[in-house]
Design a protein that fits this description.
The chain starts with a strand and ends in a 15-residue tail after the last helix. By secondary structure, the chain is of the alpha+beta class. Strand 7 and strand 8 form a beta hairpin. The protein has two domains: 49 residues, no CATH class; 101 residues, no CATH class. It contains four helices and eight strands.
Length: 195
């Protein structure tokens, strides 16, 4: 039996007979069913065969791409939950109405929950909050409860509406091209998904 080495060059498989060609390549024993790094070619014992258009290969690639996209869906949901913001209208120290953006960070949620505990224990009657843009407003007990509710609503909207919507799009994708068109942006409003 004639021994040769195959090499993938510019998308083509080139066979080199180790005796006849000037360019001698080291001959290696390649186990049967060995796949190249991209899993596009499989060695059948004699030669590498292109499997990149077979249904199994396409299904495996789509499954892998969906796993990556679902990870993106969840990672972006957690990031948005921690780095988003809610809008709140309160009263500043001068008695004027002021609308501020409050980050939905764990720190701010914890701060509001701590204020609720202090209000309930009657340790304080008001608190001056500084928003990220340095706008200050007064928080009273009702404000703290309202903010806590807005934080919960913000988080719920991510996990009850938006994350399932993006997950559903990923799961329904039938091609990698279709999957690649899915933009995961939690700042956008999305249609409600029936689970």
């Amino acid at each position: 039996m004639k021994k040769y080495v195959e090499q993938l060059i510019d998308g083509r498989i080139i066979q080199y007979d180790t005796i006849q060609f000037e360019k001698k390549l080291p001959l290696v024993d390649v186990p049967k069913d060995y796949k190249d790094n991209e899993n596009k070619y499989i060695f059948d014992g004699l030669k590498f065969n292109d499997i990149s258009q077979t249904p199994d290969y396409i299904t495996d690639q789509l499954t892998s791409a969906k796993t990556v996209k679902l990870t993106e869906v969840n990672t972006k949901a957690y990031d948005y939950e921690d780095n988003g913001s809610i809008s709140y209208t309160g009263i500043n120290a001068d008695g004027n109405s002021v609308t501020v953006q409050i980050e939905t960070s764990d720190k701010n949620i914890g701060k509001i929950n701590g204020l609720i505990n202090m209000f309930n224990a009657e340790k304080i009657t008001q608190y001056i909050w500084s928003a990220k843009d340095d706008t200050q407003f007064i928080i009273k007990k009702d404000d703290a409860y309202n903010l806590s509710g807005l934080f919960a609503e913000f988080s719920s909207k991510i996990w009850i509406e938006k994350q399932p919507y993006f997950k559903n799009l990923v799961e329904k994708a039938t091609t990698i091209d279709e999957l690649n068109t899915i933009g995961v942006d939690y700042s956008l409003d999305v249609p409600t998904v029936s689970l």
